[in-house]
Amino acid sequence: MHVPDGGTAVDPTDTAAVREHLERFASADRVSERDGALVADFRGVTHVTVHPDGRIGTGMPLHEFAGVADRLVFDHDAGELHVERDGTDYTFRRP
After folding, report:
1. Which of 7, 32, 42, 86 is geometrically suited to a Cys-Cys bond with 46, CB 3.0 to 4.6 A?
2. 2 in a structural domain
């Protein structure tokens, strides 16, 4: 599903779609599977982790996020991953 701003919305429980977009977002060599979750590692402690049940965890030097997402919106052109849930929005910017 494409959203009007040019991003692509993905169901966080759709492992194949999440992997495809994480590999595009971070590059395929930075995405791995750990304990059933998909992890995109950037430099240092910066990461995005997506669990099969829709839980999301991110780490950045100055902040982090953990929660369950209704959908993920990958804006590859802007280098942003938007985590959306009713009442909560979080944006992870690719370093």
Report:
1. 42
2. no
